[in-house]
Amino acid sequence: MYCNVSSAIEDWFALPLNNNLENRKIMMKHARIGRIVCISLMAPASGGTLSWIIFALPLPMFIPENYTDVFRNYPLQTACTFQSITLTGFYHIVFVVQIYQLITTCLGNCGNDVFFFGLGMHVCGQLEILKNEFRQLKTTNNKREDRKIFQNL
């Protein structure tokens, strides 16, 4: 994994040194697709996580009218499991821990998918660049020169 990520970083740092505008367009196209997928996955997931947290907050607008009991909810909807500590000081600790769980789960699941998709898009871009370089390849009658050309790819 480290090898793949460091190779991708090296490719992006080598891009300005390589004055080939076509290669830059290809890499930017694949990076744009990765960015669009990242935003389209992470925004709804983060919004959903935020809504679970907000709806669990003990705000007056979420408490029904004519309700006399103490109304305490949890972000993960585990009121039955933690019913015995709802009225103690541990309620706030459990609430904060569940917020942390929701955020890390959201970032872990969706973030992992987006990360691997981004690496896949980078590899697709590199393969497309390699395909273009093979198309531009011209062979000569000299085998040594051909070998040097292939080594430079």
Automatic annotation (TrEMBL):
Q: What are the transmembrane regions?
A: 33-54, 74-97
Where it sits in the cell: the answer is:
Membrane
Gene Ontology CC terms: plasma membrane
Q: Which UniProt keywords apply?
A: Membrane, Olfaction, Receptor, Sensory transduction, Transducer, Transmembrane, Transmembrane helix
- Entry annotated with the keyword Repressor: no
Q: Does the keyword DNA damage apply?
A: no
Q: What protein name applies here?
A: Odorant receptor
GO annotation terms (biological process): signal transduction
Q: Where is the signal peptide?
A: none
- GO MF, one annotated term: odorant binding
- Organism field: Cotesia glomerata (Lepidopteran parasitic wasp)
The membrane topology term of the UniProt record is:
Multi-pass membrane protein
Q: Which InterPro entries match?
A: 7tm6_olfct_rcpt
Q: Please name the Pfam families in this protein's record.
A: 7tm_6 (PF02949)
